[in-house]
Amino acid sequence: MDAAAPVASFAAGSEIVALARQAAVPGNGQWVADEADPERSLAALVTAATADEGSGWLQWEPHDGADAVRTEPVIALTAHRHFPVRDDEPWVHAAIGGGRFLAIPLRFVVSYRPDPQVRRRWEQMFNDLLP
After folding, report:
1. Model confidence, pTM
2. What is the domain range of residue 45?
3. Number of structural domains in the chain
4. Residue 70 in contact with residue 62, Cβ under 8 Å?
């Protein structure tokens, strides 16, 4: 799944993702997909996702043809070099919002910003539900 073969590309999967990537500003801890150097960009995402157990904010297009991107809290995010069923498809495994896990191709991801408060708020919400 994460073989050493280089990442071929994660060019934007739609025009809306391409436009959102152009408008996004990397820095201050925010990772923005860089199609010009996919190998370095993937390494930077792995580093960002390793911090704070992958807790943060993911900006992505929720389905092909959505014509919009959204930013959602993730309580866990892991970046992978190759999708299990297809080579040269980098992707993330993300627990979004209430904890549903999704496999998202990087071609639909705009940015990721680590934020430990996302996981802390989620854990506190469930702790408050316990007697």
Report:
1. 0.86
2. 15-129
3. 1
4. yes
Instruction: Please check whether residue 8 lies inside any domain of the structure.
Output: no
Both tokens of 127, joined, read 């702790």
Residue 3 scores a pLDDT above 60: no
Backbone phi, psi, residue 68, to 5°: -160, 150
Mark residue 130 as left, alpha or beta (left: phi above 0; alpha: psi -120 to 50; beta: remaining).
Answer: beta
Residue 6 lies in a domain: no
Q: Is residue 85 part of a domain?
A: yes
Locus of tokens 């999704």:
102
Q: What is the pLDDT of residue 84?
A: 67
User: Is residue 60 within 8 Å of residue 104, measured between CB atoms?
Assistant: yes
Q: pLDDT, tens digit, for every residue of 63-93?
A: 888 889 999 999 989 998 877 666 678 889 9
